[in-house]
Protein: Anhydro-N-acetylmuramic acid kinase
Organism: Spinactinospora alkalitolerans
Amino acid sequence: MIVIGLSSGTSVDGIDVAVADIRSAGREVLLTPIGHGAAALPGSLRDDVLAALPPASTTMGDVCRLDTGIGRAFADAARYALDELCPGGAADLVASHGQTVFHWVRDGAAHGTLQLGQPAWIAEATGLPVVSDLRARDIAAGGQGAPLASTLDVLWLSGREGTTAALNLGGIANLTVVSPGRAPFAFDTGPANALLDLAAARVGEPMDRDGARARRGRVRPDLLARLRSDPYYARPAPKSTGRELFHADHLDAALAGLDVAEDDLFATLVALTAGTVADACRAHGVTEVIGSGGGMRNPAMTEALRAGLAPARLLSAADHGIDPDAKEAYLFALLGFLTWHGLPSAIPSCTGARTATVAGRITPAARPAAPPDRLRLVPASSPSSRHQSR
């Protein structure tokens, strides 16, 4: 199948788009990357999404408008994939993660998750079936619904020698650890770009481009100690988190009473991510880390990670055949392929679910066969069809 994968992460910085040729060969899945790109969120949509995220309050009207706006933006991204990336302008399936606006975790257990981006808009724009809502089934089975990246990571890294970790640095950092003779496991280590983006917004910048501010600043041990004291870091895996915890109020609480220079704040937030990732890898004997996500474009982050991970090596997903900016979109293409064929995708040892589940729901193609033109009622002929009340 030619599958279009669509993803927007917790940084809400655009829609990642990837097209893959995916097929089964016995117990092996063959994925050929065809092309990838990115689509901007139109107009004020990004601001509207960020304004609705915790700790902000919102209305059901806002939720409805966001669901439609995000759905239409994802539909435009899917059309871009068809027109610019797909061979012959054709594909078989779209897999859309949508935009996470709330991930409900209480006392370490995930109780629900909400991704917006109405898939009907994608089906109408492309005429293709759409797989969406890819986290909820795992949560219903007792899992965290995250990190879904573990599905691709475990299949991709199986058979390697040593203990390898796949690291994704999006708004949140997540880690998948694969080692011969041991069940794989995965978890969110904590914030990656989420707090850095908040700091950048406070100085009127979209991001710390090229890590310039972090590289000029100095790590503040007092602030770093406050940040690292959050109980989340000590919780055992599997675990997941998001902007519901690592938001503006979280940062303000850590900064309370401290006079921290702007550049020092960036340097300290980089040290927080690098340190918590390195601690997790060291605790599990990781010898090689394969990185992806927007954080890999931040030289300050990669320098701090290399120093913290040593003697373990930090490599890029590009060294293993996947563009680090497109890995999440290829992940959702893979999940869509598995769901379309009725195959489970979530890995219980990684998400904490009781069993492996088939992820998501399917919105049918927009051009079905001719509809029926009549309904005929047939009298019941067996006792089993009689009305019963209880």
